[in-house]
Amino acid sequence: MPTAVITGANSGIGHAFTKLLMSEGYNVFALDRVIGRELKGLPCQKFECDLASSDSIDRFASDYRFFDEPLDLLLNIAGVMAPKADDALESVAPSTLLSTFQVNTFGPLLLTQALLPSLLQAKSPKLAFMSSRVGSIADNSSGGAYSYRASKAALNSIGKSMAMDLKEKGVVVLLLHPGFVISGLDKTDDTSNNPEAVMPEEAAEKLWKVVRAKGLAETGTFWHREGFELPW
Question: How far is CA 184 from CA 11, 12, 23, 164, 179, in A?
Answer without folding.
Answer: 9, 8, 24, 34, 13
